[in-house]
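User: Hi! I have a protein structure encoded as tokens and I'd like to know what sequence might fold into it. I'm fairly new to this, so please keep things simple.
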């Protein structure tokens, strides 16, 4: 027999482990005294109850061992109280029914209850036709039903706690992924632009010092802006105050993004179609990040040729297409940024594809508006 979920913890089973055996021993003794059993018989029945309870507690009995132990305890109660429906010791049968309902599965708890009620029906038929036997029959049945209900409620609470813990862990995992994506996007873009400016400065050192100085200044500004963005993002994560956060980039900021790359020497063609108005902030931010990450990959891994960006915005969806020349052998995107883009788009119910196409690299994303 499978132990129910709510019966797995010893602490949660304090009633069947301690209270129930103690009550059965006391009620067996009381029943034997009330029916005026011989002292030796009464002592033997009490010792039987004590030993059986001790064994059940020692082995933390469940399943068949518990069923057998409860049968022995029920036999002891019946022998102690036999013949008198007014004997208070019969409450031991109710305690046994409750113990079974708390620890055994519902099916086996009902089986134990049926056996106990059958014993009272037999006594009603064989011993005496007194209505007290019927009262004990209903008492045992009600006790079993009540404790089955208690056990099921306890199991439900445990499952709810487990689900709550799982949701909390999933939320923490999602938050870590979100932070990783934000840091990747913030740092990746600025480093790529800074590297472009530094490369221009290196090439211009011998021929045009002014141009080299300008490129270094732009690289410094890009690095400073990135540092400020990272500080703002970390500060927001610590405080959790969304109102204090700086405005997040959106679709309308994509031309400025393109300009920062062009200013660093990248050849980018931008094709904007539709009016990016009325788009939800989360979807607008995702579109911006997709273009940003695609440009970062195109500049870092592409062949240096023209990059074509197309943004088609309608009321139903935002379609993004970024195409560039093929990456030299061994310089394909490592996949972290692509994974982050996939996660962003999938969260909003959209689709994204990224891979080789017509001798180049193509990123296509569709985001429901």
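Assistant: Happy to help. Inverse folding works backwards from shape to sequence: for each of the 369 positions I chose a residue that suits the local structure. Here it is:
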């Amino acid at each position: 027999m499978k132990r129910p979920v709510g019966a797995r913890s010893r602490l949660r089973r304090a009633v069947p482990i301690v209270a129930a055996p103690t009550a059965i021993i006391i009620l067996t003794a009381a029943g034997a005294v009330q029916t005026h059993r011989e002292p030796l018989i009464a002592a033997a029945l009490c010792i039987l109850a004590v030993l059986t309870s001790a064994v059940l507690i020692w082995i933390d009995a469940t399943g068949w061992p518990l069923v057998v132990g409860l049968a022995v305890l029920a036999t002891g109660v019946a022998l102690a109280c036999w013949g008198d429906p007014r004997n208070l010791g019969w409450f031991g049968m109710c305690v046994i029914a409750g113990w079974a309902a708390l620890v055994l599965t519902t099916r086996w708890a009902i089986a134990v209850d049926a056996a106990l009620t059958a014993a009272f029906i037999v006594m009603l038929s064989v011993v005496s036709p007194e209505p007290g036997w019927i009262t004990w029959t209903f008492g045992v049945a009600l006790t079993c039903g009540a404790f089955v209900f208690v056990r099921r409620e306890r199991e439900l609470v445990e499952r709810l706690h487990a689900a709550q813990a799982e949701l909390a862990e999933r939320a923490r995992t999602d938050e870590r992924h979100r932070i990783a994506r934000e840091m990747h996007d913030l740092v990746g873009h600025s480093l790529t632009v800074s590297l472009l400016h530094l490369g221009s400065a290196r090439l211009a050192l011998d021929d045009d010092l002014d141009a080299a100085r300008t490129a270094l200044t732009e690289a410094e500004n890009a690095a400073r802006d990135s540092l400020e963005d990272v500080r703002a993002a970390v500060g927001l994560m610590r405080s959790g105050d969304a109102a204090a956060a700086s405005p997040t980039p959106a679709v309308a900021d994509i031309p400025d993004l393109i300009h920062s790359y062009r200013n660093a020497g990248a050849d980018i063609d931008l094709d904007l179609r539709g009016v990016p108005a009325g788009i939800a902030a989360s979807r607008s931010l995702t579109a911006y990040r997709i273009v940003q990450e695609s440009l970062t990959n195109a500049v870092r891994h592409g062949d240096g040729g023209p990059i074509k960006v197309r943004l088609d915005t309608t009321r139903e969806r935002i379609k993004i297409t970024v195409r560039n020349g093929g990456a030299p052998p061994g310089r394909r995107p490592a996949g972290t940024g692509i994974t982050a883009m996939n996660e962003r788009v999938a969260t909003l119910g959209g689709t994204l594809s990224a891979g080789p196409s017509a001798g180049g690299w193509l990123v296509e994303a569709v985001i429901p508006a």
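A useful reference point when you look it over: The chain has two domains: 5-166, 250-369. Feel free to ask if any position seems puzzling.
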